[in-house]
Structure formats: structure tokens, C-alpha cells
């Protein structure tokens, strides 16, 4: 008789997961129960490690996490999957050695790996020590146990983490990084400090940009945002007096006719309004940018990377009420980091882009200005093309009999009107 999974309980999540683990061990590799998710767990983990269901610090939705109180602590799962444009699958087989005659495995339809990556437990403590509905005791120094006991709605799995004796020292150490502390009767008291939280987030963002942002983020949010606009392009096209032989093909008679045309034009030069005002000559086909006016320094680029990293941390791990307060603190004079040079540079680039757009719009159709001779030639060619198109349409409207009748030689025939003339 196959073993059944024990019913989930809320009193002791450890016993629940132990029972599920014991039942899974009793299943043979040939079992028909094929897992539909693949987890990559840390290589160094203790027997006390457990899968837990915890509320997401930002959204509050329950997600799966991995908790090892005697190891590295808490882990979240990052999904690495193939895209819909390049679907993949994964083949899993047991490692029976080279002498195995028969190997049974299974294939996952979706190539998705859930990789356990460390996550700071302080993000799960923020909704507890800084709730959205702030009470009168939130600004007071309190022992950690009193802070935890005041939250009656904590889930069983969250309680399993915060009351775990093996993990207690790590929890207290992370609490000190975002709280003011004081000693009272051989007991440590804690009070949440928003400035300390902001400094902790900045330190995490610094480590992120030190390791390097992903290439897609660097290209789309750093290089494009700080790239100077293309102000103008000056082109010089010199055309000399030449004689051109053009071959014209008659579609109906397939006769070839050679037409000799004479074209003469002078040098045409197009300049933008910004060049006319400044009087600066730009080499032919060389783009003129504002890089010489205000170069983007590395410090400004670092500030932009830091802002993007902070934005990611706020959206992923902070409750909405704390995210709003962090934004207000960053804009205040008490902010530990000054983003004013970045804001000034972005405003300058926005103004230059608007100026570049206006200057290109004055050139008309975003192309270079052409000389009057070239415009006249274009109008003549356009009129000839229209006449040719009209002739084609007229020929297409004629019937075949009418076209055959036009080919008849009527030089020796009398006209139809001769038969109706009055006799003299």
C-alpha cells in the first residue's frame, strides 16, 4: 500500500515538512509521481533545513522559501527558464554508474530551474517592527520578544523562524543594523530607525553595482539615459556637369530608345539652425553632439546605477509604506546621498534633446535641404512618372479589339464620312 502525505498542520511546520520528507524518501526512483518543479539547493545544508511558505515582504503574497537555521539562513528561489521564442526541455536520469544496463528517467516539458539564493531576513522583520498601521508603541524601545508577541497575525512559518533558538543570534544581529538599541536590565531593546534602513539599502546597492549590473539594464537604463543627443548632421554633396546616357525601355513594343540628358548643378550644402547661429563648420557627414558641452562623468553614471539598484530593492523587498518614506528621505536634506548632480544632468540632457528635435524639425522631414535645381529635377521626374502611369492606365482600359484595330493600316482606305457626303 503506497504511503500518503501527512495532512498539513499549522502548529508545527517542522513536523509537517519532516513527514513529507520521510514519505518522499520511501518512494522508489521508478515512481510515477514526477515532480513538476526543479530546485537547486545549497550544497552545504544541515538536516534542520526546511521548505517554508512565507509572505513576500513587498506584496504580502505567500511564496516558497528555504530556511536553514544552522547554515546560511534564509533563501528565496530565483526562476531561470527558457524563453517562449527558444523553448527547451530537461532530461533527468539517475546516476547509476557506467555498468547500469537500463536507466529510467523523465523529461520536464518546461526547462525551468528554481535556484536558491540568499535573502536578508531583515526584510521579513520590517512589516513586524514597522507596520503600516503604526501604533503608539512603535517609537518606543522594546525587547525583541515583546515586539514579536505584539503581532498576533504572524503565520506559523514566520514564527518558526523568529523563535528558532539556532537562528536567534543572526536575527538579533540583523535587527541592530536597522534599529537603535539600548541596554536595560541585561536586556537589549530595539527601536526602528528609517535612516539606518536607508543606509543599509545603500550599502546593498553599492555591492550590487560593484559586481556589475546586468548588460540589459546597463544598456537600456544607463547608456541610453546618459547618451548625448545628436544635434546636427552637415552634409556636402558636390555634383559636376555631366552627360548621362539613359536607356528607356518601351513596355509595349520592346523597342530600345537612347535619350541623352544634360544635368548641371552646383554644390549643395545643408546646415542646421544651431550651426548657422554658432558659425562653426562641421566636417561632411560628421555628427555633431553635445559631448563637448557637458560630458557625462563617471560619478553621474554611478549615481544613476545606484538609483536603479535602490529602485529594485524597494520594489522587491520593501512594504509600500516604507518605500514611500525612503523616497521622501532621499529627497530631503537629511539624505545620506545627494542625487542633485544626476538630476541636473538629466534635466540638461532633456533640454538638449528637445532642442535637437526642434532643429531637425525645422529642416523638414528630418532630411537635408536640397538646392532649387535638384528640387526642379525631382518635380519634372515626378510629372513624367505621373504621365507614364496615366498612359498605362488608359492602355489597360482599352479592349483587345480596339488595340488590334489601331494596328490596321488605313492609309489607302476612305474615311467613313466620305460615304455620307451630298452628291454634287
Automatic annotation (TrEMBL):
Bias (Acidic residues) ranges: 249-258
Pfam families registered for this protein in UniProt: RNase_H2-Ydr279, Ydr279_N
Cellular component, GO, one term: nucleoplasm
InterPro entries assigned: RNase_H2_suB, RNase_H2_suB_wHTH, Rnh202_N
Transmembrane stretches, start-end: none
Localization per record: Nucleus
Comp. bias intervals (Low complexity): 261-278
Primary localization class, coarse: nucleus
Residue ranges of domain Ribonuclease H2 subunit B wHTH in the record: 123-326
GO BP field: RNA catabolic process
Positions with biased composition (Basic and acidic residues): 379-407
Superkingdom per UniProt: Eukaryota
Gene3D superfamilies: 1.10.20.120
Compositionally skewed regions (Polar residues) per UniProt: 279-297
Residues in Rnh202 triple barrel domain copies: 40-120
Keywords, comma-separated and alphabetical: Nucleus
Region (Disordered): 1-36, 240-297, 367-409
Record's function text: Non catalytic subunit of RNase H2, an endonuclease that specifically degrades the RNA of RNA:DNA hybrids. Participates in DNA replication, possibly by mediating the removal of lagging-strand Okazaki fragment RNA primers during DNA replication. Mediates the excision of single ribonucleotides from DNA:RNA duplexes.
Name recorded for this polypeptide: Ribonuclease H2 subunit B
